[in-house]
Amino acid sequence: MDVVVGVDAGGSFTRALCVGLDGSVLGRASSGGGSPAHNADARANIRAAIIDSLEAAGSSVTDVVAIVAGIAGFDVPSDAEWAHEFIAVPGIGGVRIAVNDTEVAHAGAFGGGLGIMAIAGTGSMIFGVNEAGDKLRNDQYMHYAGAARHLSFDVIQHVLLDVDSDDSVMADAAFRHWNAKDLTGLRAAIVADIAGDHDEMKRHFGAFAPVITSLATRSPLASAAIARLAESTRVGIDLLAGRFQAPSVPVALEGGLACSQAFNGALMGALASGRSRCTIVQPQASPVEGAALLARRAVGGRASP
Prior knowledge:
By secondary structure, the protein is an alpha/beta fold. Helices cover 44% and strands 20% of the residues. Helix 8 crosses helix 9. It is globular. The mean pLDDT is 93.
């Protein structure tokens, strides 16, 4: 039986979905992060998710007629060589396509229609497809909004400056996360974190972001940092919206930070105050389902996702 495999490889997790050409879900699997910018074992994680999804489906590598993988870190044409090698599981033939993970997230969210996808999690990217079919990215405008770790960088810098001595809630949370007793200990812990393994440092700072968003209503530092990141994200979204003709442009969000209640609310406020033409909508399907949809379309799949 012919099958296709869709892959969504982000900084924290890789998800793979094996489906039939009619869109029927046959097997799912997940593994560690597939972004080489954040994971030394990214290649192994991606290949493991692909193989495990086939095993869950009761299929073999020889059944695969197409695979589409969205990989965080695939940012420029020169990345194509390693990205395609990451998905070149021995025995798999047929069509093999690698793209940035925002493209599969966009396909899942809009089913091939127009709109803007904003990702903020382990990594960050804003991607859109307009009426003309143009593929738009915020980095085409020298823009980068920031991911979970950048929210943490912002908050920690302000904690270390001790500019708001009344915000003991955030300071105490930072002390607990870095196992420090006071600001002096926190400074030492931060320096040690940054001097250590780079991937581990990014994961440690990224893991603090959910703490920050959970304290948004209790910590002035958290609220202000979330608002700054939301405004930066709004700028990136509106830069792409300028390439759309529609009076209203739908925007879907993906990633742990982007989908948090605190960030979502701040972004809606930023879009409203900036008089943006963009409106946040719920995605139609998940990124890995978007990857599977693109894989089916690559070989003439018959049914809708």
